[in-house]
């Protein structure tokens, strides 16, 4: 089944059509299998909702005993319905579902929303029922939404399809929601409703056994009426499928996403309540990042950003013009805007000259433009017009306090008029007393005019920050992974084959270093020897000072056990150190690694770990023996492109150390970027590599060199 879905998806992406889900989102005739006359049952509420929301198609309650339900003629079976049906709700006990899906197939129904629970989330027996109905669905080409789900809503007045048992009736708008959890989906829908933000489509698909979240996201991506997508998930059944879709859709329109289960405890709760797949939790953030999704930790901020996206254009840059009629809030807003990476540039002479003419004498002419509390509609208007013309301004932030001695409605009308030109995004922090009727009127003018209004300067500034972030994501071109042609795959393959034959989990040092050399990852000059005499000649060949390391399969962290001696300057020191190690490590396979001593560099780490269903994660950060303490590392999903490798360097906390501080040298960053990409290529070429660790890589001004490495297969 997974493969059919994927093929469908590829077709959808390639042909740019998604009619397959039209029967779900744009139904013309809906059967409610399990319709009930009991007021408080799902089979009744769905009919009530469809009628209440003004569904434009036909409703067919299916019930073996009742002649009508909620005044609508009911039929004993779907076969008794004289017309075609494109969508069915199934609200009957799970054990009857496989047969009903077979019937739906025979009747020619194209999509089925299974509201009933009692499937994969209920263990083996439920899983068997799920497999049984899926087999029947496949036989007839019926697409399944759910089971154990709410359903869908299409607010387009052409359909008014409220195929759901929830209780929020949104006005039509441009935000579409896809949520795995019905509870979260419903409260996001309610929050948008409370913010007076219109909705386009809604889908909450529970166990998501057939129609997947990515498929829905793809559908929204192609829906012209959807301006922004809100996504809530608790894990990905198939992360790669999701990434393929998200990458394409996020270029077209913003995807605002939240994933619960970031903590281990949260992940457990998610896994047990929807039967979804946890275990890719740390990786979700990386998936969002790689695919250009706007990721949120806070559902309220997500809804507030959605409000801005629903009416505002995307800014073309980070430069904000601020208009305010009160001082303090502009300061707070500035702090938030700047921390979101935005700037408040000075105004041009042209702008200042105009404002000198149009503003009240008390006004402050600059950025922010303080029109002062006595400023009215024409003052706001002139400030807005000026900022719209400024080439150095990309978006506008307004603080509007409803001073009782001004015509606040006139201010609102002027803001709305400029807003409706949609030249640059406008965000408004609207400070008022909403219990006064007078200001309710002002507020309504702003809302009806599509001006996103917020109750706090920080909240408003944050929403604008997200619009800007989307601009950044949309303009970010991660490029294709570099393919280094100078690598030796054949030799690497042989080394790995040998290691597999020896049944080894960890490769030995010479195997590891040979693989690194094959992939042109610079390593310190080294020899592996068995006795003092060979050690001395090796050290002389490499050149003192050297580092001595004990080599044995049983030694993982050598320095912990006293297996590393650095800065050995001569043969005498070397033989003493070897004698000590021989006493300390009474193991049969003891050997010695003699390595060039490379003092004075910055210790870095690069590595790889594998994530189920997702592939390799590449790691980079500050390394050395304190890596676990500092934890200054970042991950990305392989394959890593040059841009991504560069971003890895700039996103660690200690980034400044790489540039050099306090008279210390920086490190050769381009070489690190290359090493990260070469590692990414290595593990992509050889997916059997489970883990890899170059720690430390020592960074100097003009080179970076690995001095310790481990590979696990
Ligand atoms: P392990 O990680 O098994 O303890 P390493 O080979 O990473 O052993 O060595 C531990 C530490 O010794 C490194 O973090 C580094 O500080 C230092 N070190 C090891 N090899 C070298 C070298 N060739 N030049 C300079 N310092 C080294
Ligand atoms: Mg090490």
Q: What does it look like?
A:
With 713 residues, this protein is an alpha/beta fold. It has 5 domains: 13-148, 3-Layer(aba) Sandwich (Rossmann fold); 150-311, 3-Layer(aba) Sandwich (Rossmann fold); 313-475, Rossmann fold; 489-497 and 508-596, ATP-grasp fold, A domain (Dna Ligase, domain 1, 2-Layer Sandwich); 602-712, 2-Layer Sandwich (D-amino Acid Aminotransferase, Chain A, domain 1), CATH 3.30.470. The chain is 41% helix and 20% strand. The chain is built from 25 helices and 29 strands. The chain has a 7-stranded mixed beta sheet with strand order 9-8-11-10-12-13-14, with helices on both faces. Strands 24, 25, 26, 27, 28 and 29 form a 6-stranded antiparallel beta sheet that branches. Strand 5 (87-90), helix 4 and strand 6 form a beta-alpha-beta unit. It is flat, with a radius of gyration of 32 Å. The two termini are 31 Å apart. Bound molecules: adenosine-5'-diphosphate (ADP) and magnesium ion. The site of magnesium ion has 2 residues, from loops.
């Amino acid at each position: 089944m997974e493969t059919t879905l994927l093929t469908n998806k590829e077709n959808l992406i390639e042909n740019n059509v998604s009619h397959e889900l039209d029967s779900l989102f744009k139904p013309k005739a809906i059967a409610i299998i399990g319709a009930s006359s009991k007021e408080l049952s799902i089979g009744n509420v769905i009919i009530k909702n469809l009628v209440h929301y003004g569904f434009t198609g036909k409703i067919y309650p299916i019930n073996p005993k009742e002649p009508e339900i909620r005044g609508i003629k009911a039929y004993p079976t779907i076969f008794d319905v004289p017309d075609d049906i494109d969508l069915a709700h199934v609200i009957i006990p799970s054990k009857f579902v496989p047969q009903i899906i077979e019937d739906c197939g025979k009747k020619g129904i194209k999509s089925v929303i299974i509201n009933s629970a009692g499937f994969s989330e209920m263990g083996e027996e439920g899983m068997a029922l799920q497999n049984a109905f899926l087999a029947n669905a496949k036989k007839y080409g019926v697409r399944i939404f759910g089971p154990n789900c709410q359903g869908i809503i299409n607010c387009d007045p052409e359909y008014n399809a409220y195929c759901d048992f929830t209780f929020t009736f949104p006005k039509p708008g441009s935000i579409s929601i896809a949520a795995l959890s019905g509870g979260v989906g419903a409260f996001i829908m309610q929050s948008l409703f409370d913010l007076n933000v219109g909705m386009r489509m809604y889908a909450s698909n529970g166990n998501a056994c057939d129609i997947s979240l990515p498929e829905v996201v793809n559908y929204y991506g192609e829906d012209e009426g959807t301006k922004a997508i809100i996504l809530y998930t608790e894990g990905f059944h198939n992360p790669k499928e999701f990434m393929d879709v998200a990458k394409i859709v996020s270029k077209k329109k913003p995807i605002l996403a939240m994933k619960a289960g970031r903590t281990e405890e949260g992940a457990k709760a998610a896994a047990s309540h929807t039967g979804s797949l946890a275990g890719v939790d740390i990786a979700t953030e990386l998936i969002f990042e790689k695919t250009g999704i706007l990721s949120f930790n806070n559902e309220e901020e997500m809804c507030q950003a959605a409000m801005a996206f629903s009416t505002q254009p995307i800014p073309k840059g980070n430069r904000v013009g601020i208009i305010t009629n009160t001082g303090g809030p502009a300061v707070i807003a500035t702090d938030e805007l700047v921390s979101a990476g935005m700037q408040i540039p000075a105004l041009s002479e042209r702008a200042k000259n105009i404002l000198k003419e149009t503003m009240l004498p008390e006004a402050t002419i600059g950025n922010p433009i303080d029109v002062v509390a006595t400023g009215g509609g024409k003052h706001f208007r002139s400030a807005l017009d000026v900022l719209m013309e400024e080439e150095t301004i990309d978006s506008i932030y307004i603080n509007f306090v409803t001073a009782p001695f001004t015509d606040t409605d006139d201010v609102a009308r002027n803001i709305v008029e400029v807003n409706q030109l949609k030249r640059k995004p406008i965000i408004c922090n609207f400070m008022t007393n909403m219990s006064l009727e007078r200001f309710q009127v002002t507020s309504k003018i702003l809302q009806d005019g599509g001006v996103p209004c917020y109750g706090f300067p920080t909240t408003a500034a944050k929403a604008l920050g997200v619009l800007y972030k989307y601009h950044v994501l949309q303009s970010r071109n991660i490029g294709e992974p570099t393919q280094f042609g100078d690598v030796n795959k054949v030799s690497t393959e042989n080394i790995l084959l040998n290691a597999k034959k020896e049944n080894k989990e960890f490769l030995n040092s010479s195997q590891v270093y040979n693989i690194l050399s094959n992939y042109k990852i610079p390593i310190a000059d080294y020899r592996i020897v068995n006795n003092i005499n060979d050690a001395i000649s090796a050290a002389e060949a490499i050149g003192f000072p050297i580092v001595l390391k004990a080599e044995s399969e049983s030694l993982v962290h050598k320095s912990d056990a006293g297996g590393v001696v650095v800065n050995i300057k001569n043969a005498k020191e070397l033989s003493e150190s070897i004698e000590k190690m021989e006493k300390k490590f009474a193991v049969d396979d003891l050997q010695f690694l003699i390595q060039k001593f490379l003092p004075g560099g910055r210790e870095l780490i690069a590595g790889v770990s594998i994530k189920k269903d997702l592939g390799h994660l590449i790691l980079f950060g500050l390394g050395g023996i304190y890596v676990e303490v500092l934890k200054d590392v970042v991950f990305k999903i392989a394959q890593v492109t040059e841009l991504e490798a560069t971003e890895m360097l700039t996103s660690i906390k200690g980034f400044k150390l790489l540039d050099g501080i306090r008279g210390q040298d920086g490190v050769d960053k381009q070489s690190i970027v290359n090493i990260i990409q070469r590692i990414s290529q290595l593990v992509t070429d050889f997916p059997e590599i489970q883990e890899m660790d170059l720690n430390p890589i020592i960074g100097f001004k003009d080179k970076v060199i690995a001095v310790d490495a481990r590979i696990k297969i």
